[in-house]
TrEMBL record, chains A, B:
Domain HTH lacI-type: residue ranges: 5-59
SUPFAM superfamilies, A to Z: lambda repressor-like DNA-binding domains (SSF47413), Periplasmic binding protein-like I (SSF53822)
Transcription in keyword set: yes
Entries under PANTHER family matching the protein: LACI-RELATED TRANSCRIPTIONAL REPRESSOR, RIBOSE OPERON REPRESSOR
Gene of this entry: rbsR
Protein known as: Ribose operon repressor
Keyword terms: DNA-binding, Repressor, Transcription, Transcription regulation
Organism in which the protein naturally occurs: Oceanobacillus kimchii
DNA-binding among keywords: yes
Length: 329, 329
DNA sequence: GTGAAAGCGCTAACAG
DNA sequence: CTGTTAGCGCTTTCAC
């Protein structure tokens, strides 16, 4: 069967020492072109693949990067994850990952075992309350879609995002607005909520808010609550697209016409927002790019390069579709 | 700073040898309760965490499992992935993963490097044409949502799935039916298409098919094609929910009333199918459970336990929503 | 240029 | 019950 072939086997076959094989493998030191060829031949012949674990043990480093996300089932994160993975994979890194469901215990568990596997870096999306876990690790960390002072971070401009949404509803004539407030321990959610509220408070409109998780399920529950509690709502700013979709859904069910009687704005611009009916006006986040960017930063950090800036803020924009009144009121 | 603390440090601190520390770590061999306590204390005091890489090198095994999926951006896979991960994580395994986009090169690349990292097993969703790659690996492999003779597999009953969809359209009165045919090198797609066609061919109805990728984007393109080519279509069987959503979308755009003038059936029952309007009648696959089951099988294989059966087929069912005429015609 | 030897951190005989 | 020793597969001085 597939008995593992080691560097020694290659050495023997090529009639050289393991050290020499190692040298050609790593392009380190000098090797005669002839012996180099002999070694390569042996390698190909034996289908030799170096054992990364042994390598990792000696070098106390690896090609593994840990990715810690809340929940890959939320469509926002797969896009992010692919951005990270595509970039990393291309540079020879592999990613080992875990979903935490925002649970600190799981976060720590994953981070610990990732480190035990000699990961060279971590990309994490973890509530800022738990960020201590990420500080003073022995490997660089980049946070995505989350923000703390100290840690390098990639995130979108949620202050603009929140304001953009609010502006839009105001400019399309809403006077009774409900804002769904996502979990406030995640800074992006906090920012977009605050900045929307801030803008709205300066206008002469009625505004209320309801707390809501980021899932379709919870959106659904809160939608019922919303329409019961504030039946004459004219505009809704949702904390993400999933929740916005739930609002749309409940509105349709109740025979409320969107966007004529009610306008809804989502957040993220995940695929779903295009698919729902009416299609969803939303704040676009460059999700995939955030992943790519985070991987870029991490690799720089791993290579001890200086970062231009610790915090990389990416722009968002309003994507108008059919859940709002467009072209003015 | 965080200089790594090794087993030797613990040994020194506890006044014993490394071997003894190892013993208490692994609960192997006998250790005096007192020395055990001393060791534990040293461990806690030093915050010692064993180096999994060293462990892995010696034991030629690890707690790592490789997960190979086509594209986590397709909402079907995150659910599957979480099923896998939740199960594995609980048993102390960690997952290292890669998206292949159905590209054999990437598949092989990932599998190779996973093996180089001493993974103890692989869970893969890979087109059956490429299954040779997976055979004769030195670790057990379980395929998910894919089928080959030789390899253990977890998948849903797509023959029933295809027939269920076809039956439904017939029983709700469709006489002009178009079936979207997904990529046929994936057995599940093949099965569901064939069995739908088979059933339809026995009925006295007009049936056509169009090839289609599994994405919303391609669905969109093919939707236009479909309505141009077969404008009087009464029923559509889509290859998955994403594509079905695209059909719905195009139908609405063209002012075709669903389900009155046109009925649509999806496949998978991902969250989206509930969110679209009208909500989508679809074939439900137990996606998360498939992941859990696959992890179960793999762990058994890793532990050298015998499997009851190599192929685990999970049931599907028709989930009726509002894109079909329900309660008979 | 190349080989011998030591060692990364851990575990598994083998003595004692 | 516990320490000593050897070795997992690889890389890296250090001689030659």
């Amino acid at each position: 069967m597939n008995m593992t072939v080691t560097i020694k086997d290659v050495a023997k076959k090529a009639g050289v020492s393991a050290a020499t094989v190692s040298r050609v493998l790593n392009n380190s030191g000098y090797v005669y072109e002839d012996t180099r060829k002999a070694v390569m031949e042996a390698i190909n012949h034996l289908q030799y693949k170096p054992n990364e674990v042994a390598r990792s043990l000696y070098k106390r480093t690896s090609k593994l990067i840990g990715l810690v996300l809340p929940d890959i089932t939320n469509p926002f994160f797969p896009a992010l994850a692919r951005g990270v993975e595509d970039n990393l994979q291309q540079q020879g890194y592999r990613v080992i990952f875990g979903n935490t469901d925002g649970d600190t215990t799981k976060e720590m568990e994953y981070i610990d075992t990732f480190l035990q596997h000699n990961v060279v870096g971590l990309i994490a999306s973890v509530d800022h309350l738990h960020h201590e876990v990420l500080t003073n690790l022995r490997v660089p960390v980049v946070t995505v879609d989350r923000i703390t002072e100290e840690l390098p971070a990639v995130y979108a401009d949620h202050k603009s995002g929140g304001r953009l949404a609010a502006e839009k509803l105001i400019s399309s004539g809403c006077e009774k607005i409900v804002v769904l407030r996502g979990p406030q321990d995640a800074k992006p959610l906090y920012d977009r909520f605050q900045s929307a509220m801030q803008y709205l408070s300066e206008k002469n409109v009625s505004v209320n808010f309801i707390d809501c998780q980021l899932s379709f399920e919870d959106g659904r529950k809160k939608a019922k609550e919303l329409f019961n509690q504030f039946p004459d709502t004219e505009g809704i700013i949702a904390c993400n697209d999933l929740v916005a979709a739930a609002m749309l859904h409940e509105a349709v069910t109740r025979g409320i016409n969107v966007p004529t009687d009610l306008q809804v704005i989502g957040y993220d611009n995940i695929t779903i927002s295009e698919i729902v009916h009416p299609s969803l006006t939303t704040i676009h986040q460059p999700t995939y790019d955030m992943g790519v960017k985070a991987a870029d930063m991490l690799i720089k950090l791993i290579n001890k390069e200086k970062l231009g800036m610790i915090h990389e803020q990416l722009p968002v924009y309003l994507k108008e579709r059919n859940s709002t009144l467009n072209g003015g009121i």
